[in-house]
């Protein structure tokens, strides 16, 4: 029922999301026609995963900024569909680096917003550096858990998610730390009133869309 409503509201989604959905639908149909069952399955799974943020948003009442929604959708498409189905991880050495850095940056921003929401938007509830540290720790923890997941999949199912093993893991963790630092720093600068214009607008859009969670927010 919920999926049917989302399908009907497809025209209300950002253009980038509509384009990705169209590509996935096209690849799904072609894969079925050519009897490429694994590719059809990956296309379907990717589409389902792009709906998860929208589902969680509707269930929790948290309204995501357009940039967040587009970024999450593009990341899922690039990771699952392009990365696995079209083997971009092996075709382009920088693919994994870009995705890890982007995801760490995103989790840094999410970590900051999570803490900021807990304080109901009160800029003075804790020092800016402390909120930034929590956001940084949140993002790095997610990255470390993902590396543990990759290790477990390789050991249990004989996959090769870690590629070159320890070297790949360490490079990923370094990129995670860099991305998380940028995301957390953007949050700290925003609290200090010195944040980059793009990031500040993103934070303010999130606050404006979710006013009921920010009773103590003052510009």
Which key phrases capture this entry?
about 220 residues, mainly alpha, globular
Can you put this structure into words, describing what you see?
The protein contains nine helices and no strands. The protein is 76% helix and 0% strand. By secondary structure, it is mainly α. It is globular, with a radius of gyration of 19 Å. Helix 2 (15-33) packs antiparallel against helix 3 (37-60), helix 4 runs antiparallel to helix 6 and helix 6 runs parallel beside helix 8. It has helices spanning 2-8, 15-33, 37-60, 66-85, 88-91, 95-118, 128-157, 166-191, 197-209.
Q: How far is the first residue's CA from the last residue's CA?
A: 40 Å
Q: pLDDT average, as an integer?
A: 83
Stretches where pLDDT falls below 50 for ≥5 residues? none
Strand content: under 5%
Structural class: mainly alpha
The SSE order reads HHHHHHHHH
Total E-strand runs: 0
Largest sheet: none
Oligomer: single chain
Shape: globular
- How much helical structure, as a percent, in the residues? over 70%
- In DSSP terms (H or I, runs of 4 or more residues), the helix count works out at 9
What is the CA-atom radius of gyration, in angstroms?
19 Å
Task: Give the SSE map.
Blueprint: H1 2-8, H2 15-33, H3 37-60, H4 66-85, H5 88-91, H6 95-118, H7 128-157, H8 166-191, H9 197-209
Helix pairs in contact: 2-3, 3-4, 4-6, 6-7, 6-8, 7-8
